[in-house]
Amino acid sequence: MGIIETGERKAPLVRRDAEFSILKLQALTALPGREDEAARHYAAAASRFADDLRAQISLAATVVRALKGNETAMRTAVEHLAAIGDGPAETANDAASRLWCRLLEAEASITLGATDDALIALDRADVLARGPNLPESVKGQAATEIERLRAHAGKTADIA
Fold it and tell me: What is the pLDDT of residues 123-132, one digit of tens each?
């Protein structure tokens, strides 16, 4: 973390950069014992870059994969991802990004045990996955991921 902290001290404006915030979050989640700090950084960065779809996805993907045990981080992820609209998407990249938001939202919801919320996000993802702007390869990946998450949501519901 030394290089990141040095960068923040020497160039405070770097904190306003989405790429820097993503890099810092990735570094924090990789370091043992820094989970709470990573969750706080994520909450601040997700709020700071609320209108940056790509930043939201990168930040949330890092948190959903690396901080599954941090309930605060998962709730923050669900909150920020749910705030992103489903469209309309102007480009294939935009359509795919909105689809991945729903999938990440579902995964974070499953982690929290919020199966009903996860299933709603998956239903929304299913609609987005059928969109005309998406390449067939993305539709196939999305279908596989939706199926995986539905199965996982079912197992979570059985446990509850």
Answer: 999 999 999 9
